[in-house]
Design goal:
By secondary structure, the protein is mostly helical. It has 21 helices and 2 strands. The chain is 69% helix and 1% strand. Strand 1 and strand 2 form a beta hairpin. The longest helix is centred in the N-terminal third of the chain and has 38 residues.
């Protein structure tokens, strides 16, 4: 079920109303579990069985680890969880990619091999709930938490519908205990959640879905364009993927907050980063922190020498690229980000940025604003590099990405702006829609600049109730009025 669908706009209020009217916590959780499976199985009913299998593997593996004091047996239970979950992930997401590349390697050595191709659809959100359940079993193995004995509560932790298919990737230490609390209806919390949901819908249906038209027009037909069109489409994709993914996270966090459940923040104004290292502390925070805690640190982190640290950083970003998709475009994207962070670590850029952020405590908003102006140059350089890597992320193949890169500068010296804007359709959008999307992107940048200085919730709290309600009504009306008419799925559903 899509957040940006009429189905969800009916489903969510009904589930939330039933949730608050439920007499007992047990009844509430069973209701949420049924609703979550219904939500997920709208994509394809069989997907629910796969998620249930993953849930059962980790439920019994965690209990098995808890019931023994023998390290070897615990490791066997952990291996059972890892092989079960990663095995399903590999089969559905990576088998064809792996098999095709094995065939290419063997053909290089003149070894005949006919790769077997399995025609199966990638289950929606499998990478997200697989990592979520793995973090649970690893935490139990480490002794960081006790296993959950109630199967239904654990199944709800795995399937909780707001963040099920595109995150945030929640930790059991944060979410599970919240599912055991009887949350009462709170008007302030509901207002906060609704504000976040409206902002998420603004990002998705007003900005991201419009930008998708520009991006698809150019990136799906790269040989028909060059120069300025490439620049516009790449900048459009940078904001499309941000608004699409962070918009989903905002809707997920807001809808859960209304029910009294706090999910972790997944984005923190990433395009205002002054380095690639900082960007990855602000972008897809739940995944970045997952790789830090469950891959980077187990590999040795920064405690096994300088060169091992650099290698570990490169490894986790290469794996991160592969996590996003079974394609060399994603692997190259991950490697490029990893290399950038390795270079910044060598130059000490990320460290200086952290020290600068933490120095001097809380500063007046005027000083923070002036400091932001000074940081424009590193922000622009970081944004330019991130856009460069997005070319590989969005391109359909590596060859198309390599075809486009040298042609970004083609025709810039002869570009005629008046001719470009003098047509009724500009890169797939009509004249009005093209300038509308430019306006809403600029509005988004302005809103995020304001968020760096003051929290909008604090400003709204100081307003009289009639004014505050008028702001809410105006914001919702703006989203409905400007919403793109063609419903599009979320980009990260494919991962």
């Amino acid at each position: 079920m899509l957040f940006n669908s009429l189905h969800f706009l009916i489903f969510y209020p009904v589930v939330t109303l039933a949730y608050f009217l439920s007499p007992t916590l047990r009844f509430r959780n069973i209701l949420l579990l049924i609703a979550s499976y219904y939500f997920y199985m709208q994509y394809k009913p069989e997907y629910g069985l796969l998620m249930l299998l993953s849930t059962m593997i980790d439920y019994f593996a965690s209990l098995g680890m808890h019931r023994t004091s023998r390290k070897g047996v615990k490791r066997l239970w952990l291996a059972f969880s890892l092989m079960g979950n990663l095995g399903m992930l590999f089969f559905f997401k990576y088998f064809n990619f792996f098999n095709t590349n094995v065939a290419r390697v063997l053909s290089f050595f003149n070894v005949a091999y006919q790769p077997l191709s399995i025609d199966v659809l990638l289950p929606i959100g499998i990478s997200f709930y697989t990592f979520q359940t793995l973090s649970y079993t690893i935490d139990v193995y480490r002794g960081d938490m006790q296993p959950e004995r109630d199967f239904f509560d654990f199944a709800l932790y795995v399937s909780f519908f707001p963040q099920l298919v595109a995150g945030p990737i929640e930790r059991s230490t944060n979410l599970l205990h919240q599912l055991k609390i009887h949350h009462s209806f709170d008007t302030d919390r509901v207002a906060s959640g609704l504000r976040l949901m409206v902002y998420g819908f603004f990002k998705k249906v007003v900005i991201a879905d419009r930008l998708a038209v520009i991006v698809d027009t150019v990136y799906n037909n790269p040989t028909q364009y060059s120069g300025v069109a490439y620049f516009i489409a790449t900048f459009a994709f940078a904001f499309q993927i941000y608004c699409d993914f962070s918009g989903y996270s905002d809707i997920a966090i807001g809808s859960a907050r209304i029910m009294g459940i706090n999910l972790m923040k997944n984005f923190e104004r990433p395009y205002f980063s002054k380095s690639v290292t900082e960007f990855w502390r602000r972008w897809h925070i739940s995944l970045s922190s997952w790789f830090r805690d469950y891959l980077y640190i187990p590999l040795g982190g920064s405690k096994k020498g300088y060169f091992r640290t650099l290698l570990n950083l490169l490894v986790i970003f290469t794996v991160s690229g592969l996590w996003h998709g079974a394609s060399w475009t994603f692997v190259i994207w991950g490697v490029l980000n990893g290399l950038a962070i390795v270079i910044e670590r060598i130059l000490g850029i990320g460290k200086r940025a952290r020290e600068s952020e933490g120095a001097g405590g809380k500063k007046p908003w005027t000083l923070r604003f002036l400091k932001g102006l000074v940081n424009i140059i590193p922000m622009v350089m970081t944004f330019a590099f991130i856009c460069f890597t997005w070319v590989f992320f969005r391109a359909r193949t590596v060859s198309e990405a390599l075809y486009m890169l040298p042609r970004f500068l083609v025709g810039l010296d002869t570009f005629d702006l008046s001719k470009f804007l003098g047509t009724r359709v500009i890169l797939g959008l009509d004249y009005w829609e093209f300038f509308t999307v430019i306006g809403v992107v600029l509005l988004l940048v302005f809103l995020e600049m304001v968020q760096a200085v003051v929290k909008p919730s604090k400003v709204l709290a100081r307003m009289p109730s009639p004014v505050r309600l008028a702001v809410y009504a105006l914001s919702l009306s703006l989203v409905i009025w400007l919403a793109w008419t063609e419903t599009q799925t979320f980009i990260y559903f494919a991962f």
